[in-house]
Design goal:
The chain is α/β, with parallel strands linked by helices and 323 residues long. The protein has 13 helices and ten strands.
Length: 323
């Protein structure tokens, strides 16, 4: 009978020794990063940048796959069902921390079914309108919205995305009524605003700033606490007419729950090396993005705090979506 407990101890010891060895060998075949958003948006763009650098550092292919739909739920579900071996990763954003409250009927829970690997970056958003909108600044736009409640639309890349939540926060704080027009991805939403089919969008500054500079849309405000260095002539929404307003977009990497800690730690260390590259910092700063460097434990705490933050916003503003 004593052999059974001893055998259990031997097996446990063998598994404990095997995990570091597995991490040393990781990756020995291609790694997939699933982006649950459309092509061309910030998550897609930065996933490809991170994947490129990891591929060079780890001498193994990192394949980016876009699986958009249902407010990021479709692609996220796919990762959650994958083997917890480090070979299928999720490029996620604050869409996921919002969805913990906004979409209660999901098949997964973020901090139960996934493990935090590393954040990637954060950036401000940019409120833009089509040039046909008769408002030259934010105060004029607010006056227009109050004069025409429910007559103007705003685009987003779907329920729960930073663009959706930033606009709903804007509506709530300004007491205005804009109609939400969700799209399959941020690229489609952006195209709708540029084409004049939808009047407004709050978009990532990293992707919308060039379009605003070209005059295809009119920038009325940025969403950070201070003016964005990439568009210094554009005031923050808070200073332009809506005191206290702030919203951002951030991105990060998660893996299925149960992924061995040595593999998570290895991925975290390699991602943090990428984020510390001077040329990358300079390039991202020019686009309006700032790298976020944390340990897995720090990133998990960051996620918990963000889930709590958006739960309060959603409850206070009474934000709901149909599922």
């Amino acid at each position: 009978m004593a052999l059974i407990p001893r055998l259990g101890i031997v097996v446990a010891a063998a598994l404990a020794l095997a995990q570091p060895a597995a991490a040393q060998d990781f990756p020995n075949h291609p790694v997939k990063i699933i982006v649950p958003f459309g092509a061309g948006g910030p998550a897609d763009v930065f996933a490809r940048i991170i994947g490129h650098h990891l591929q060079e550092a780890l001498k193994q292919s990192f394949i980016i796959e876009n699986r958009p739909g249902a407010g990021a739920v479709i692609g996220t579900n796919e990762v959650g069902k994958s083997a917890p071996d480090g070979y299928t990763l999720l490029m996620m954003s604050n869409t996921h921390t919002v969805n913990e409250t906004l979409l209660p009927n999901r098949n997964y829970q973020l901090l139960r079914d996934f493990t935090a690997v590393a954040p990637v970056n954060s950036s401000d958003l940019l409120l833009v309108v089509h040039p046909s909108v008769p408002a030259k600044d934010l105060k004029e736009f607010l006056a227009l919205l109050k004069a025409k409640p429910g007559e103007l639309n705003y685009a987003s890349s779907g329920p729960g995305t930073p663009y959706h939540m930033a606009a709903e926060l804007f509506k709530s704080m300004s007491g205005t009524n804009l109609v939400h027009v969700p799209h399959r991805g941020s690229g489609d939403a952006r195209t709708s605003v540029i084409g004049g089919h939808v009047q407004m969008m709050i978009d990532a500054i990293t992707t919308m700033a060039p379009t605003a500079r070209e005059g295809q849309v009119r920038a009325l405000g940025t969403t950070g606490q201070t003016r964005a260095s990439v568009m210094p002539d554009v005031p923050t929404i808070a200073e332009a007419g809506l005191p206290g307003y702030e919203a951002t977009i951030w991105l990060g990497i998660m893996a299925p729950a149960g992924t061995p800690k040595p593999i998570v730690d290895k991925l975290n260390a390699e991602i943090n090396k990428v984020l510390s590259l001077p040329e990358l910092k300079t390039q991202w700063a020019q686009q309006g993005a700032q790298p976020l460097v944390m340990t897995p434990a720090e990133f998990e705490a960051y996620l918990r705090k963000d889930i709590e933050k958006w739960a309060k916003v959603i409850e206070t503003a009474g934000i709901k979506v149909q599922q």
